[in-house]
Protein 1
Amino acid sequence: MKMNGHHPEDAHETVIETQNLTKRYGDLVAVKGLNLKVKRGEIFGLLGPNGAGKTTTILMLLGLTEPTGGSARVLGHDPTREVLEVKGLVGYMPEDVGYYEDLTGRENLMYTADLNGLPRQEAAARVERLLSQVGLAEVADKRVEHYSHGMRQRLGLADVLVKDPEIIILDEPTQGIDPQGAQDLLKFIVRLSRERQMTVLISSHLLDQMQRICDRVAIFVRGEVIAEGPIDTLGRQIMRGESLVVEVEVAARDGGTRSSREIVESLQDLPGVQKVEPSGGNHFLVHCSVDVRDRIATQLVEKGLSLTHLRLRGYGLTDIYMRYFRGGESDG
Amino acid sequence: MVERFSSPSQKDAKGISKWIPQVEEWFSPLVSGPGLRAVFRKELADHFNSRRFLILATIVAVTGLAAIYVAAVNIRQEVRETAESGFVFLRLFTASGGSLPPFTSFMGFLGPLVGLALGFDAINGERVRGTLSRLVAQPIHRDSIINGKFLASICIIALMIFALGFIVAGLGLRLIGIPPTGEEVLRILAYLGLSVVYVAFWLALSLLFSVVFRQTATSALAAIATWLFVVIFVGLLAGLIADAVVPVGSDAGAEELLRHERLHQALGRLSPTILYDEATTVLLQPQVRTLGPVLLSQIEWAVPGPLPFGQSLLLIWPHLTGLVAATLVCFAASYVLFMRHEIRAS
């Protein structure tokens, strides 16, 4: 499933570390006691709904806003004190990245290079290379006002890379672009991380995308990280101590001669199953202590029923998301 | 499209833009530090290419040239008739010919607009476009952004005003055929310098508005409203307040009249426009010896004659200080506000 082949368990160097990082705006706690460790070469996802504290965390890591409490180290530097060092090593693509509309894509990047103090000749060569890497070589000399949204996001990625950073931080990079464009962008990000050992910190609320590319994620809800780790273990971590739920659906056959009660009974006796609960129509929820999907399938097929849907709930990010974020959103 | 940053040779630069590297060179001692220089360079290029600036500069230049031309025609006639030749060259700038006001009026009226146009969207424009958060993520000091913008705009203003001054002086020289004396040259240079400070005040004010207001339209409107208020109403209000505080009837004594006049003037001087007008008058009309009310007894034994340049300068020194101070206060306020602003995309 994952496109990235790293093993974060390898003892890589820690490049971003926060200790008890906290930010308050008046009474509102935007980020609450955050402890994060990101290793070199990792793609780390900050996941959560809007307003969960992702952007605030990023701004604190970049020294763009001062933490109320706690501390952060980025490549060994303190972002609040050594701002310029951090900004020189970290590329940041903000949400809704904007450009000087009346300049061309190339000119926009050249300005960034100039701000980073690159000599003109070197800058021109690097900008040229980056533009072709993100597939904008043909429109490089068109004004940005003519760019599509997807092109702007790709230009943003090139812009971030102009300073040849060790870490790139992307805030909602795929927001608002079409699936194909998002796919390409994510592939490019993964390649960067693999080929250049670049650390990528990526914030998003789009789970399926993050699930595909991130080595590890941290899930933010109301300023707190409720879970952190590789995605496959995350589900277990969150659902620890709770029973698993398998969603089952069978095809309605024989004019509905088999009642749902019959099906419940046939599944009830399977080892590991704790409770079977009909949830309308031909849909059932099976609570169990271990994964019993294979047994359910065998059982139903033996009974001559055809299975149309079988899914283990609780291990995917979507389930975690739905569980926690609904509460988060309703609180605003 | 002009390649602004990418080609050092500027091979396809056209028009005014090809001077940008040259201009950078002139002002390079002012801007040190990589971030500041980069911002300065970018802003300079932006202004040179912005239609907004080009249109305003053209309006100022056209009206200025017209005013000088009309004044020169009148002066020529006058000089032929009266053979009076004291400070003829300066009168090019102050004399109005027929229906057209003098050059100084145009400068005093339109100059602020140039300043406002250069500054009103300096910061909030970047915020609205979403470029500010990208800018502050670069390894530059945050104040480089506002300093670079301010310096670049001041350079543009200085260039425009001095260039225009020299052009109209050249035209005037051609038309009236009387070369300026050394003192006249000094006075004209001082006047141009004063104009730069005056326009810089409006620039600083609009920069402040661009930090305070989130929308560029709001800051533009606020800037224009302030300009109208200061240019038109402060003088009137000063008169009204003075009338109310020190009412003078037809039988008022000299002392009362004097108090009224002093109050009127003091209130009026709160407006940078009035400061600028007074200073302009003193600089370009050497026969003006004082700005306040004068009693008959004071001029009774005075020898009529123009003030030397040094004395004129001394007379307007407080005005100049006041204008510089007002500019710096506005800039300092925008600086502090900008440095404290939370940079957020949303």
Protein 2
Amino acid sequence: MDEQFAIEMLNITKIFPGIIANDNITLQLKKGEIHALLGENGAGKSTLMSVLFGLYQPERGVIKKDGVEVKINDPNDANDLGIGMVHQHFKLVECFSVLDNIILGVEPASKLGLLKKDEARRRIVDLSEKYGLHVEPDAIIEDITVGMQQRTEILKMLYRENEILIFDEPTAVLTPQEIDELMRIMKSLAAEGKSILFISHKLNEIMAVADRCTVLRKGKYIGTVETKNTTVEELSAMMVGRNVNFHVEKKPANKGDVVLEVEGLTVASKVHSNDAVKDVSFKVRAGEIVCIAGIDGNGQTELVYGITGLEPAKKGSVKLNGKDITKASIRKRNTSGMSHIPEDRHKHGLVLDYSLEYNLILQTYFNSQFTDKAGFLKRKPIREYADKLIEMYDIRSGQGPITATRSMSGGNQQKAIIAREIDKNPDLLVAVQPTRGLDVGAIEYIHKQLVAQRDAGKACLLISLELDEVMDLPDRILVMYEGEIVGEFNPKETDEKELGLYMAGAKRRAVQDEN
Amino acid sequence: MKTKSSLLRNNAVQSLICSLACVILGVFIGYIVLLFINPNGAGKAISAVIKNFFFYPAGPARSKYFGGTLVKAAPLVMCSLSILFAYKVGLFNIGVAGQYVAGAGISIYAALAWQCPWIVCLLLAIAAGALFGAVSGVLKAYCNVNEVISGIMLNWIGLYTVNIILSNVKESASPYTNNISSFNSEAILPTMGLDKLFGNNQYVTIAVPLAIIAAIVVKIVLEKTKFGYELRATGNNKNAAKYCGMKEKRNIIVTLIIGGGLAGMGAALLYLTGMEQWSCSQSSVPGMGFNGIAAAFLGCLDPLGSLLSSFFIQHITNGGGYVDKTMYCSQISDLISSIIIYLCGFVLFLRQSINSRLSRAEERTAEREKELAAEAAQGGDK
């Protein structure tokens, strides 16, 4: 064998009850390369990484480091072998400084047990200069940007002299500018001889930064390709198993009356003493999709809570079809024409221990259609209604209406929520990250449903973190930064770079709500 | 193979198997403890615990003491219903003991001091229990006070208040309250001829069928009604309940009111039979409420399961009375039944492990079938 592999996972098979999560997967990471691991949700990427970290033991297959077979029983073994990982959700102690987080677990101490931070600081400064990773060692984690938190995570790996660096969906939380910065850092790390495994489902990023790419689909190994010899289309076909239409087909918007009018809305924050939403005003008309874009955590969640009534408004007003609903109960809002596809389908959208049919009537169970005068649920109509929605919205499940919702796949759970909310025939559909964590096929389906609602004359308020979705789906884009709307855009007249500047707070402009 | 595994997957079958396994394990450990204390009498003692009323050879005596077990099982059923009802809504109603005490206090006082008929005493007991539940509920809903904390506080408040109040109607020579059957026979629950069925055991009253009816009603309310749908949704996922506009605060309060009412009614079902008198000097909360927790879990949190588990727990508790006191101290019966009750908590754990084992076995058979099929295909090629 000519080539030098830093780490090899050969013929890995991992079986869980009811599912083969990894079926004979081989992944070979060359020294000094950036290797992408591509696959939809549920393709087996996380399982494979957990095997590499010793969290799971594979049923079959071996792991080799530098050509020598190794046994990884727990994360400590992985750490000893020089394998480090930046998780999608950072594992940092919020109230510690950058320096403290980096040395956490490998604290340099004197014989008396006193910390020797000066030495650590010197090493960290050296490392950050060498790789162009700008951090402030004494800043507290909760005060710094997400980008700097990520650089802290990277420094944590470098400080431990890890040779194999794994990045798990690292760009999900970054602005376009920060993504460029990260790509540059990854390349410089690879140039210094580090081997990088880059887990992602974003094809453009893989094409931009990776040397080779291994594709998984439904637990199976599909192939490994050189990125310079392939195209985005080819990769996506490998990932999904068919050709995918990335572009959302839609007719020009046919706008009607104002359905939702938000004026001067202010919502308090649960985490800090500042308001999460500050004096926000905008309108959504019938027949249009308005998208609130922004980096995660800039008040989008709280804005939705204020509109849907999950949190009280501190100031300002919300009007639905001209009627003031600022103080109305959630039930009142739900029954007077508002539907809400929540951000977190497990937290708000579903009662996971209920059957599918019970979840499908979550917003309507109290209607005479499903409850008789004595307060008993009507079994037959509920079953028939569930059968109808399952058929119409192609919700797939093991046992139809009586399937435990917990056992369904994420995509089908989301379809169930969408079926329930759309079938209510709302005037306003508030859809918060409706495609989060779903595979390409399901995303395509959900986008079509949203466009169909818009064409049927409904008002749609979309909240999205995915730039592709932001550029493709809406008729208008409002960018939110630190609780304020800092710009309004026509998706045809803007691009991701421009949006990025507004999302990062580098620019702002007056919002003229056209009428 | 297929039918066997699906039978094991069945909820009711699983519940039964696990509950039985816990009972057997509990009896076994109880036996070992007895062996340590005094090896000579262990076998006899444990069989006495299990036999309970079968201790008596003849028919009438047996059915009389069988009736005695039923009488005390009825309030236990009510307490376990109270626990499981709240549990379905995500609340741990440890205040059940206090609610039970409140029910006992008011029903005895109304019977003796106000000479009320039994139906009034029963309704007052339900109201008193519900009031205690309401206090916990309001504190939980509006001030976010954990219902376990407020429940435990109320247990003690209830106990001492009832002791003070009932001191007005106690026998002058003892700490016990006056005998209801001699002071106000109107307040004794009617037997409707049930006493005849159980060897003229005068304490077997409509309390027993009432407890069974209560269990059925609780089951129907939880599983078939809009109200139950809301309550269980709130218990399973209170964020989703809020999201779809359910009034979670109201639901919390109503749940604890109903739970309290059930516990209060349980107390009336015992004290209005005249079988027991309240001791005004007792300084610990009656165990009935706490045993209700065990009964609820042993019954796999199903109202009908509660009927069986409550009877069983009362059965071994009564059986403990037949242990030879010359070999073991008198607390031994409580110890043995506590061990068994304690192990009942493992029911849910056992269920989980059965399920994961089944899944693994199914996986393995599927694998094997696949391999066999592959081999067969290869053989065919040759």
